[in-house]
Amino acid sequence: DIQMTQSPSSLSASVGDRVTITCRASQSISSYLNWYQQKPGKAPKLLIYAASSLQSGVPSRFSGSGSGTDFTLTISSLQPEDFATYYCQQSYSTFTFGQGTRLEIK
Amino acid sequence: QVQLVESGGGVVQPGRSLRLSCAASGFTFSSYAMHWVRQAPGKGLEWVAVISYDGSNKYYADSVKGRFTISRDNSKNTLYLQMNSLRAEDTAVYYCARPRGPVRGVPNDAFDIWGQGTMVTVSS
Predict the structure, then answer these.
(1) Is the CB of B114 less than 8 angstroms away from the CB of A96?
(2) Tens-place pLDDT, residues A58-103
(3) Interchain contact, A49 vs B46, CB within 8 Å
(4) Which of A18, A78, A96, B73 has its CA 20 to 30 A from that of B24?
């Protein structure tokens, strides 16, 4: 099975900061990497699919990059509504999520 | 609008069974594969199972293989998860989710539509 490892597990940042979250796969997954945002008590929301494609309706401050085993999610300028938990997910071979990155207000 | 609504959760004793349902509306259900994803309290997301658009292909996480069965009734626009031999570690919110595109088989695609989730608690 493919394992997904996110770093950091938690992160404190301020409104306006640029933030990067990393996701590493245990083997190459090409570009089959997706990013989700989840707020407490809510279902996850798709942000980025296929490593770098922005889901419709998602603000352009979110971007994704990478291929193979190493991927990043970048938020260019944090907004108050961005404080949440972020998950990567591989869809190359069945489906596996990373353990999540909790983004907190500094 | 496109919507998924789960039901069937509750409190169940270890070793017993429970069936979850996911009612779909606002899209052509019979054209999409469908997934179940779960989240234990305070924990991350865990993919559980997927079924192809026509029910001919099914895949499971190792943690539920042999105990859970995913199925669908396209005439009722409904997805199911039959959970047998339940364990304490199956306690979680269970979400149904739809991949982005209607593709034959099981697409390697992200999940763009999620239900609100239904809570399953396995406890004596």
Answers:
(1) no
(2) 999 999 999 999 999 999 999 999 999 999 999 999 999 999 999 9
(3) no
(4) A96
Using a CB-CB cut-off of 8 Å, the residues of chain B touching A32 are: 108
From residue B40, alpha-carbon distances to B27, B44, B90 in Å are: 29, 7, 8
What 3-state DSSP class applies to A81? helix
B63-105 pLDDT tens trace: 999 999 999 999 999 999 999 999 999 999 999 999 998 877 7
Please say whether the beta carbons of B20 and B118 come within 8 A.
yes
CA dist., res. B107 & res. B90, Å (int): 26
| Cβ-count burial A3-40 (b if 16+ within 10 Å, e if not) | ebebeeeebebeeeeebebbbbbeeebebbbbbbbbee
Q: How far is B112 from chain A (nearest CA, A)?
A: 6
Residue of chain A minimizing CA distance to B44: A99
